[in-house]
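Reading group handout, session on sequence-to-structure problems. Before we discuss, look at one worked example. The prompt was deliberately terse, the way you'd type it at a terminal:

> structure MetQ/NlpA family lipoprotein

The input record follows.
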Amino acid sequence: MPRLAAFASALALSAAMAPAAWAEDITVGVSPGEHAEIMEEVARVAEPMGLNIEVVEFSDYVIPNTALADGDIQANSFQHRPYLENQIKDRGFDLVEIGTTITTPMGIYSDTLESLDALPDGARIGIPNDPTNGGRALLILQDLGLLTLEEGTGLVPTPLDITENPKGLEFLELDAAQLPRSLADTDASIINTNYALAAGLNPNEDTIATEKADSPYVNIIVVRKGDENQDWARKLVEAYHSPAVKAFIDEKYEGSVLTSW
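And the output record:
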């Protein structure tokens, strides 16, 4: 009996240690704000599944895809589809989407205006300087009736594609992360939600206008081509799409960040 008990105890110990012994370690790149906060919650959900996620924050939108393509990280979660498509086109990255995450409507913020109706002629507007988010900002202004863009520019128009600008708006193109600090120097700035949240802005209370809900800019999880069928990739998406992560997002962001599943 003692030998049987010892054997049973050894089996139990082995079973308890199995998940840790077979756990996979990956590094996921994110941008600051909600992408980082959500991925930390995903990491907690993924750990019992045998997936250890190290979350690494990048301060801009350029480095995460370079780091992924170079093999410095295994996945990233910070960008929407149009941005990835533009990066692949411009830089030749061999990257693929493995799952959707969240939608974060861009907002128009101002330190001096209480409504968009108060926007003066010749107003100075801050927009992101990367093609997809800058184009997204201009499309928001077009949807709001403040300007008209040349037909056929798709999702990446630039200020050069503006055909009608009745208020004579001027555009200050800045790195997306710098836009919250630009509010002291602009009449209004169009800011991605993650950078707004990181700067202490409340997308539900501090905006003077918000992107429409039917935006095509759903965010995605991206890996190197060839890794999309890896077991860790499946677990990463499964953990992200879990009820626990959805509940975390709904409770923490109260509608300013929307889940895609």
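Points for discussion. First: Confidence is low (pLDDT under 50) at residues 4-20. Second: The first helix runs from residue 2 to 21.
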